[in-house]
Amino acid sequence: QVQLVESGGGLVQAGGSLRLSCAASERTFSNFVIGWFRQAPGKEREFVAAFRWVGGSTTTDYADSVKGRFTISGDKAKNTAYLQMNSLKPEDTAVYYCAATPYGGISRRQLSYDYWGQGTQVTVSR
Fold it and tell me: Cβ of 91: how many Cβ atoms within 10 Å?
């Protein structure tokens, strides 16, 4: 099984930045599609961003709510994916989950992903 462990969550003031990490126990992680999702209290889990290495380049997708503020990326050598979050808003407060799958292309659907991390809390104060 592939294990994913998120880290980097915490408390930050509005307008600040935070970088989440998703470490994978898989040496071929660079062949996976990576997704970030989030879930705020009382709300459904929603898509945030997705990422895929394609040769020497990458393909990304972002939810409209985070475009221009968040950046998804990865480090092949470290088998780690990242979510750089800038200009954070209180509305970004949620538990953030990393997900991955070796199949298909980039997807916004939760069911497309086979592996999930435990989540990391991000709290943005006003």
Answer: 10
Length of the chain measured in residues: 126
Provide the 10 A C-beta neighbour count for residue 24: 23
Query: What's the CA gap between 79 and 17, in Å, rounded?
Result: 23
Give pLDDT tens digits for 23-32. Answer: 999 887 888 9
* Chain CA centroid to CA 29, Å: 14
Q: Could you report the per-residue pLDDT of 68-94, keeping only the tens digit for each?
A: 999 999 998 899 999 999 999 999 999
Cβ neighbourhood burial of 88 (10 Å; 0-12, 13-18, 19+): buried
Asked if 14 contacts 90 with a C-beta cutoff of 8 angstroms, the reply is: yes
And the tokens for 105?
């292309």
Which residues have a Cβ under 8 Å from the Cβ of 21 and sit 6 or more positions away?
A: 6, 7, 8, 80, 81, 82
